[in-house]
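I would love for you to help me understand the pair of lines that follows before we discuss the fold together.
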Amino acid sequence: MAVTSVKPVLQGRFARELGELAIAWRAQTPPDPELVVLNEPLALELGLDPAWLRGPGGVGLLTGTVLPADATPVAQAYAGHQFGGYSPRLGDGRALLLGELLDADGRTRDLHLKGSGPTPFSRGGDGLAALGPMLREYVISEAMHALGIPTTRSLAVVATGRPVQRDDLLPGAVLARVASSHLRVGSFQYAASSGDLDLLRRLVDHAIERHHPAAADADRPALALLDAVVGAQASLVAQWMLVGFIHGVMNTDNMTISGETIDYGPCAFLDAYDPATVFSSIDHAGRYAFANQPMAAEWNLARFAETLLPLVDDEPTIAIELATASLGAFRPQHAAARSAGMRAKLGLPAGPDDATVDGMVDDLLELMRLGRVDHTTAFRALGTAARGDVEPFRGLFLDLAGVDRWLAPWRAAAPDPDLMARTNPVYIPRNHLVEEALAAATEGHLGPLDVLLEAISSPYDERPGLERHTLPAPDDGGTYQTFCGT
C-alpha cells in the first residue's frame, strides 16, 4: 500500500462548506509530547508512513501543532440532548477537526483530535484529556473495528507531558481519531435551531454526499436521508447488543449520521448477563442501560427527524406524517438485525421459524440472567457444545435441568459450529483487563496494553498465551463503573 513520507494533504471541506458550524482554532502546544501508541495498519490505510508519524513532524500532526500551511483546523458546533435535557450549544470543547484525508481507497476520512486544549465551546472546562481515557477509546474502538462493528477509529495516542487535574493529577494525552465524518444528530439540532433554512439544507446535502449518496436522487432527499440514518442506527445498535456492548452515554451529540459508533467515554462490555446493567457513573436512572439502548436510539432519531421537517415537506402535517412513518421502520429493522445476528450466534441457518428461534433466544438469555452467566463465555462455550462437548456450557449454570431442556431442541436443530466460531468472539476488552492495562500505562508500563491490543485484534481466533483474556472478571462483589474522563 502506497504511503507518503511528507505531511498529508488536509482538506478543509467541512470548514469551507459549513462555516456557520465551525470556529477556526488551533491546538494547544504540549510541553513534552511523546507517542504512546500508533495504529500502523490504520496509518497505512490513510496513506501515511508510520515511520514518519513516529518522528517530530508526525507527532506534530498527531497533536495538531505542526500542520500543512493551508490546513484549516476547526472546532465544530453542535447542540444535543444530554440524558434527555437539551443544550443548545455544546460543540467541540476539547477537540478539533484538523481536516479531511483521502485514504488509500479514495474515501474521505476526518482526522480529529481529542484533548487538544480549550476551545470557544469549552464551557469552563480545561479542554484537556487524561492518558487513561484516551487509551480506553483507542482500545475499545479498535476492538469494535475488529469485531466488524461500524466505528470511528483511533490512529494514535500522544502523551503531552502536561498533567491534567481530575479527582487526582493525571498524565495528559491527545487522541488522534479517524471517522467517516463527525456529523451528529446534534449537528442538525444546532443548524435547525439557528432558523437558517439554507444552512440546514446545505448540511443535509453535505451529509447525503458523504454518507448516503443514493438519497440525492430521491423525490424527498431529506426524508431519504432520515430513512438511511434510521436503517444504519437500527443495524448498529443491534450489533452492539449482540456482543454485549454498552455505549453508556447515548446523547444526541453522540449519534452519528454515518452509522459509526462514536465517543467512547463510559463504555464497557457485559460481564454477567443482565439487561439492566449500567456502567456509567453518571447514568443514575439507567437511561442508557444495556436493554434500553434500542429505545434510546429511537428517541434520538425522533429528535433528528424533527430537525428535518422543514425540508421534508412545506406542509407541516404532511412532513410529520412522512417522518413518523420513516421512524416506524426502526423497530422492525432493529428486530430483524438482532434476530439474524442471534441466529448466527446460535449457529442456526436462516429460516421461516423466526418466532421459534426468538423464543429460544429469550429463554437462553433468561437462564443466563438468573445464573449471572458471563455473556461472552456462554456463547463461545455454546460453540463447543455444537461440536459435541456440552459440559463446558452446562458447567456455567446452576439450573442444569433448565439448561438441558433448552439444549435439547437447539441440538436437534443441528447448529453449525463453524458459523458460531465466526460469530461469537473469544476475546473482548474485558473490563478488569482494560483497567489493568490503563493503570499500568499511566505508570509508564505498556506491556499489559500491548497484550490486550494483540488479543482484541483477532477476536474470533483463539491463540495460546492469551488464556487470561478469555476469562470472566473475578467475582469480587463490587460494581464496575466507568467515567467520562472530563
Remarks:
- The chain is about 45% helix and 10% strand.
- The mean pLDDT is 95.
- Residues 185-337 form one domain.
- The longest strand covers residues 153-165.
